[in-house]
């Protein structure tokens, strides 16, 4: 699998405008573009990759103040698993559902993302989103971008008690006790469905 700076695989026009693509990565892009008959899947993270900022960061900054910062610091000290930390953040948003959906739709979409997705599909590949966030806020963004056909692997969630409640399925073949969804298990499954799997992600470090 290849990973690296988002938005720059395949899309030569974008690569020309960036300086963090190494020679081997550029060669990989060209080879992938030339081999349009090859069956492949491009797997991308969502928060901070297809979007400009993680949704949990938005909630902390816009809604939670010191409480949010305290939760974040505790998570960084490993006092919470990732899924438990996100669950607390999502539940604390404190909005009516219509207000929450409007807030979700303010998430800024990466300006190169749609073009990348289109180029992957034009090259004969499938674009898949793999996120340890929550489909509750991912799905409305995809609908807004006219991309509701994109396959999403993420933690399910519902609106409940003025927040988002994660509905993690512990019986799922992709279950992770730490993240809710195990990205490695999903990628391994995709390897059985596609000749090549290209996986681009950004680790949650901030």
Would you mind describing this structure in some detail?
The protein is built from eight helices and eight strands. The longest helix has 22 residues, at 55-76. α3 packs across α4 (82-91). With 206 residues, the protein is α/β, with parallel strands linked by helices. It has a four-stranded parallel beta sheet with strand order 3-2-1-8. It has helices spanning 12-15, 23-34, 55-76, 82-91, 97-104, 113-122, 135-144, 183-191, and strands at residues 40-44, 126-134, 151-155, 157-160, 163-166, 175-176, 180-181, 196-200. It is globular. β4 (157-160) and β5 (163-166) form a beta hairpin.
Estimate the strand proportion: 15-25%
Q: Kindly, what is the distance between the CA atoms of the first and last residues, rounded to a whole number of angstroms?
A: 25 Å
Can you count the beta strands? 8
What shape does the CA trace take? globular
Order of helices and strands: HHEHHHHEHEEEEEHE
Helix content: 40-55%
- Residue runs with pLDDT of under 50 for 5 or more positions: 1-23
Assembly classification? single chain
Structural class: alpha/beta
Largest sheet: 4 strands, parallel
Figure out the total of helices.
Answer: 8
Arithmetic mean pLDDT: 85
Strand line-up across the major sheet: 3-2-1-8
> Whole-number radius of gyration?
18 Å
């Amino acid at each position: 699998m290849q990973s690296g700076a988002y938005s720059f695989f395949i899309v030569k026009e974008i690569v020309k405008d960036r300086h963090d693509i190494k020679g081997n990565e550029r060669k990989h892009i060209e080879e992938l573009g030339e081999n349009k008959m090859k069956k492949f899947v491009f797997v991308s993270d969502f928060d901070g990759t297809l979007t400009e900022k993680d949704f949990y960061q938005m909630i902390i900054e816009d809604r939670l103040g010191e409480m949010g910062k305290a939760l974040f610091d505790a998570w960084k000290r490993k006092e919470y698993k990732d899924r438990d930390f996100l669950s607390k953040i999502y539940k604390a948003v404190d909005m009516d559902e219509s207000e929450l959906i409007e807030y979700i739709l303010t998430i800024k979409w990466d300006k190169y993302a749609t073009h990348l997705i289109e180029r992957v599909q034009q090259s004969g590949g499938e674009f898949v989103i793999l996120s340890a966030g929550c489909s509750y806020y991912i799905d409305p963004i995809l609908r807004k971008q006219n991309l509701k056909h994109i396959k999403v692997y993420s933690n399910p969630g519902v609106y409940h008690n003025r927040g988002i409640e994660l509905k993690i399925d512990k019986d799922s073949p992709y279950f992770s006790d730490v993240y809710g969804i195990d990205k490695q298990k999903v990628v391994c499954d995709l390897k059985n469905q596609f000749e090549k799997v290209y996986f681009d992600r950004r680790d949650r470090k901030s």
